[in-house]
Amino acid sequence: MVAALGLVRRGDAFVRRATHYVLLGMTAVVFGFPLVFLLLTALRPEGQGLRGGLLELPTEPAFENWARALEQMGDFPLLLWNTTVITVLSIAGQLFTCSLAGYAFARLRFRGRDTLFLCVLATMLLPDQVTAIPKFLLFRQLGLVDTFYPLVLPTVLGGAPFFIFLFRQYFLSLPEELSEAARIDGCTPFQAWWRIFLPLARPMLATVAIFTFLATWNDFWAPLIYILSPEKRTLTLALAGFNRTYNTAVEHMMAASSIVLFPCVLIYFLAQKVFLRGIRVAASKH
Amino acid sequence: MTRLDLEQIGCTYGTKRVLDDVTLTVADGEFLVIVGPSGCGKSTLLRIVAGLASATSGSVRMDGVAVDGLEPRERDVAMVFQNYALYPHMSVRKNLSFPLRVARRPRSEIETRVRAVAVKLGLSELLDRRPAQLSGGQMQRVALGRAMIRDPRVFLFDEPLSNLDAQLRTEMRGEIRRLHRELGITTLYVTHDQEEALTLGDRICVLHEGRIQQIGAPLELYRKPRTSFVARFIGTPAMNLVGGEVQGEVFRAGSLELSAPSLPNGPTTLGIRPDELVLGQGPRLTLVAVERLGRETRLECELDARTRLVVCLPGDVPTPAPGARNVGVELRSEALHWFDAAGRRLAAEL
Amino acid sequence: MSALFLPLVLSTACTVDERTLVVMAEEEQLDSWIVLEDLAREFEAEHPGVHVRLLPLGGAAGAQDKGKFMLAGDLQLDLLRIDITELAAYVGEGALLDLSPCFEADPTWDPQDYFPSVLAALRAPDGRLYGLPSTFTPYVMYVNRDLLHERGLEFPTPDWTWDDFLRAARSATRAADGNGRPATVGISLTQWLQAVAPWIWQNGARLLDDEGRAAMHEPAFVEALEFLHGLLHEERVASFDASFQNQLSQGLFQAGRAAFYGPVGYWETYRFRHIEDFAWDVVPLPRGERSATAIAMTVYVVPRTSAEPELAYRFLRRMAGERYQRTLARIGNGVPGLIAAARSADFLKPDVAPASEHVFLDVIPEARFLPPLSNWRAIETLCQAELEGILLVEDFDVAAACERMRAKTQRFLDREARRRSLPRMAPWAVPGTLALGLGVLVAIGLFRRGRRPVAWRAREERQAYVLLLPWGLGFLLFLVGPALVSLVLACSEWTPLRPFADKRWVALENVTRLFSDATFATSLKATAVYALVAVPLGLALALALALLLRRATFGVGAVRTLAYLPAIVSPVIIGALWRVLLRADDGLVNAGLEAVGLTGPAWLRDPDWVVPAFVLMSLWSVGAQMLVFLGALQAVDPALEEAARIDGAGTWRRFRHVLLPALTPVVLFNLLTGSINAFQIFAQPYVMTGGGPGDASRFLILYLYQTGFRHLDVGYASAIAWVVFALLALLCLVLLRWSRRWVWYAAETPS
Questions:
Q1: Preferred mutation among C451, C452, C456, C457 to probe B, highest tally of B CBs within 10 A
Q2: pLDDT tens, C478-521?
Q3: Contacts of A143 (CB under 8 A, 6+ apart)
Q4: Cβ-defined contact of C455 to B71 (cutoff 8 Å)
Q5: Full domain range(s) for residue A119
Q6: Contact (Cβ atoms closer than 8 angstroms) between residue B153 and residue B75
Q7: Using the 8-state DSSP alphabet, how is residue B312 labeled?
């Protein structure tokens, strides 16, 4: 009797575990799909890209698509360099400005702080498209069209409201005594930020860095309107060249996309642990 | 060597008065403990002295010079926090040397000082560890070291021992005392633990609801509490307080009647320390419970439904069984404290 | 700081005595770009002291916007490639230079070199010539020869009629025979205005009458559309796919499942040349009352910001000259406008399909462009909604739809006509608003002394402001400033084709227009419905996934990583994937539904199902929300759950009473960010449906974008943007207020 009960219970646990793994597998398949699709399409011979079944394996994998894609994109090392420069500077700018502002909003006391912070949050609600033209005219006035400034400057000055919010949340989650101790030990607020808070915000720095990386690396709109010269083009602009008015070669586009996407996936895979930690802290308070 | 004066410090958050007219002086080299229940404003007071918060009114002077509006760094004060506030990303060495590094002292000086402090606090073996790898007591030592290393004019302690277990607390208490003796730095120490206050302070300041209740030497507070609050707050077990009324030099509280010579008429509170009570001739009480602690025996007695008295007898002595009625308690008149309706001590006792 | 950025500024300045010609052209194919660079070097050699700067357009998606930004910014641009649908708008706004004098003065110019109907399409109503063709294509019909042969049908003759077509289509249409042979249809029909226009013209109808008024209500027009409606819903010989960019109707033909495909242009040959399974060809469109077809074309023009119109004209002649035109023909970009190039072997490739490539040249005499009166790009979007309704919905009142199309178009034309008479906005409007805004900010700062926060210190306040400086500067410069300017724009009529100084004052008309704008109402409704469904479902799914991935069992790490993947991959790729997944007849989603005994809807081509389709897609990118939930779940004290377990609480009760309360702050976080994202949905409909079918997926931001950059009505777009902003702010306030009832904080942070 007892043994039978034990069996039932063990069977129950087995069913549970089995369901767990089945669900896990389904989730993996569903979410892993875009990569598979991207690679499969990129492997199809030209003209076959979107034909037929999605899951059909290409009979003769067309590896030459990658070679063609690279050739089409033009000076690949230069594109990579430009994109990297913009991305790295954007990340640096975003981390600097947002962590500084987030720190000030979280740990310093000044009049109008909450109102100002509300303004930061409110800017998240304004569609980007509305400021696109005035911003372009501003950079035109400053003579900065066709430089990297319009792509980088808004991160150094300004920063994204969402990231300021994340940093503020993070700094709020650290004990207040830390900033008091820093002050007692003789730090100015700037020093306290630089020597105490920034090193402690590593998970959040990583999270924001990854978000910024993904956004900047994949950004199409800003480079499109601000970058004119071919020698300053970014990877996404080169990618856009595959989207032709008349005869788009989907297979080449997908091959090129996979090249551009690769660093994103790689970085995300490598950094997901820190990323998760940062998100956890950001989410823990409001 | 620094003398610290607080002059009529007031602090208001919105409509709430946190500190009200706090005036006190810490003499040069003195160890002054501010004690009070949580929410009494003692931490705020400490932060005002530190320069972490500012008072709404009044002034803080160091050696006669007003320091209001100065940064902590400019006041040259050091502070030890309840949760130690060590920088988690720095090693012990880095933590200790942080104030010196911020002040851009020469490297050689930093090194000598770190070594000296580490020796003094027994941290030499731990210099390369991170705070997370330390025990509570060790962290507290590091916090002390970080405060000491600059040779500040004033030491501020914000409940530094409340996160430690009982044994460590006693140990650290001795340590802090020793350090103070050696360094002779003016110290302001905040705690909610009256025992800590009694053992540590040269003088004690009792704070309640933002007001100073009494300032004095530990025994003075114990023997002559100026208010019923101080009377109850200082000493364990707490002083028995019996509310009653004086009518024609007689104090009445329920069935209890005591002659109260030269006391004015009106509502009055009687205070007796449990250890000043002995069994004997006097009011008859009902014994509710007996606690045997070995060193002493506590009897919880009931005068009537409203009034309970705790009696503390030295040693493990035989007592009536709980539930016994008619237990007599002797009230020696020299052991009685009298307080008026506002809780102020009445000077009438003999 | 400036030292850090110095290397960023690649020299854009040119020396004083060097003249620069800025040319913006297609970079789409390496071959043509190389030839273009060759042309430029050649030109420089012939014109000493002239430097030709070639700028890439940024692909098909970029081509429509990039030039407009340059024009708005008055940047030097000497040659630009635009789509002919926008030519009239460019001309109407004075954005192009009249090249007629150059042509007249040029002895080498001979209009006979180009196809007359092509040049006619480039002429303004007053006969002026504003540019030369890049490549063009007339609309024709693609034919699956093998399928026709199999059904025993003759290959159509060049002068076949609607009746011939209908007969052929009927016999080509077959249901699936159950032996693994898929269903075939007579025609895979295209649906955008230019593609529908030939049917209308063939029926003797017109888009505009002689006075230039919309004429879509005329009987012949209605009749033509009823014919198309009949093909789909009475004869049932046609398959129509409203999917944007035509990917699916094309796919149907490519899969050998449609006898005819069209009307459509030359561009499909490039793709169809890879077809190996069957023989195909092209024929002229079947003729109705008369024969007619439409033209699609890209043209090179000289914008008003040209610094060197003379040189620009000379280089234009080269770009429309034989060498470059033949290059474009060779790489299959379209039919060259230059007759010599079109007749060359570079275009009429004898050895590759289609055999009747000459059809593209044969139909040119009867080909025409939409009347060169107005912004056809805008009218196209306006009519698209009705066209898709007519073609998609079975019991649809075609005549009423045509009337609505007329009304919409006429309203647009009226506004176009009126905007020239609007008063100019004073030049101080923008600086004035900026100064006023700044003044208000300063005044608030000075006079609203604010409640002193707890333990406030003047010094700390100053330090805080210093730390906020980088943010504050950017906030003023890149957000507040542009936002104020957009407020000014919201009160004006302006298109990026005109200089910024040339704004017309309309007061609050843009806002009042919103109330009578049916498209805006539809758009608002679609967005609200989408948000209302997608946000809660997304929250639930994200939470469920987080619970599944909470415990670190084997493989969980990998799945967690995968879950965020859809958020990394660009919307273009995701869009392409989902278009295939959501195919009505052989898409994976419907196959899955069929497996459980359900018949899937037509998703992207069904006005009732397109929003659910986007909801479905949005569920797929809940990765970020899932991670947030996961983080919060891991932060829940395990002792709490343990305690509940000991108290005998089951899985559900543990979740309901222990986990869920601890998660409420995160639920609020995800709810707010999710709602903001849902209201700002743009990329997915932009790449997948363009707003269709009808207006069913024209979400607010997409409508805003199309209004600003397609209809070129930046003022109205700005007004929409501010309305979206206000709605979102209201929504967030309501959510926050509501959340006070259910959000539970473990430990309140001291304020």
A1: C457
A2: 888 899 999 899 988 888 888 888 888 888 888 888 888 888 99
A3: none
A4: no
A5: 75-240
A6: yes
A7: E
| Residue from C459, C462, C751 to probe the interface with B (highest B Cβ count within 10 Å) | C459
Which residues in chain A have their CB less than 8 angstroms from residue C441's CB? none
CB C115 within 8 A of CB C362: no
> With contacts defined as CB-CB under 8 Å, which chain B residues touch C458?
69
Closest chain C residue by Cα to residue B54: C455
Residue A84 in this model has a pLDDT that exceeds 90: yes
* Structure token digits, residue B137: 């007591």
Q: Minimal Cα distance from C460: which residue of B?
A: B71
C673/C544 Cα distance (integer angstroms) = 18
| Cα–Cα distance measured from residue A110 to residue A118, given in angstroms and rounded to the nearest whole number | 14
- CB proximity C458 to B under 8 Å: yes
In this predicted structure, the answer to whether residue A5 has a pLDDT above a threshold of 60 is no
- Ordered structural domains, chain C, with CATH: 2-136+298-342 (3.40.190.10), 140-295+353-419 (3.40.190.10), 429-490 (no CATH), 513-739 (1.10.3720.10)
Distance between first and last Cα of chain A: 53
Taking the Cβ of residue B324 and every Cβ of chain C, the question of whether any pair is shorter than 8 Å is answered with no
CB A103 within 8 A of CB C467: yes
| Alpha-carbon span C586 to C583, nearest angstrom | 6
Tell me the CA distances in angstroms from C440 to B175, C437, C446, one per residue in order: 59, 5, 10
Q: Nearest Cβ partner of B53 from C455, C458, C459?
A: C455
Q: Are residues A60 and A92 in the same domain?
A: no
Residues A90 and A178 in one domain: yes
Q: Which of C9, C23, C503, C569 to mutate to test the interface with A (most CBs of A within 10 A)?
A: C569
CB contact under 8 A, A185 and B47: no
Long-range contacts of B94-101 (CB under 8 A, 24+ apart): B95/B131, B95/B142, B95/B146, B96/B123, B96/B127, B96/B142, B96/B145, B96/B146, B96/B149, B97/B149, B98/A185, B98/A195, B98/B146, B99/A184, B99/A185, B99/A186, B99/B146, B99/B149, B99/B150, B100/B149, B100/B150
Residue at A239: amino acid letter: L
Strand partners, C394: none
Distance CA B324, CA B306 (A): 18
Q: Do B85 and A185 touch (CB under 8 A)?
A: no
**How close does chain C come to A181, measured CA to CA in Å?**
15
Q: Is the pLDDT of residue C29 over 80?
A: no
- Position C16 pLDDT exceeds 50: no
- Would you list the DSSP string of C474-493? HIIIIIIHHHHHHHHHHTEE
- B54–C456 C-beta distance less than 8 A: yes
User: What pLDDT, in 10s, does the model give residues A32-64?
Assistant: 877 787 788 788 776 665 555 556 666 777 788
Which pair of tokens denotes residue B265?
Answer: 């008429």
| A171 and A111 fall within a common domain | yes
Question: Measured in Å, how far apart are chain B's first and last C-alpha atoms?
Answer: 41
Residue A230 lies in a domain: yes
Bridge partners (DSSP) listed for residue B257 = B252
- All residues of chain C having their beta carbon less than 8 Å from the beta carbon of residue B71 are 459
Chosen domain end from A64, A98, A113: A64
Helix-then-strand count for chain C, H and E = 36, 14
Judging contacts by C-beta atoms under 8 Å, the chain A residues touching residue B72 are 183-184, 186
Asked if the C-beta of B13 comes within 8 angstroms of chain C's C-beta atoms, the answer is yes
Per-residue burial over C90-120, b if 16 or more Cβ lie within 10 Å, else e, is bbbbebbbbbeebbeeeeebeeebbbebbbe
C583 touches chain A (CB under 8 A): no
Residues of B whose CB is below 8 A from A183: 51-52, 71-73
ipTM, two decimals, is 0.85
Task: Calculate mean pLDDT across residues A119-148.
Answer: 87
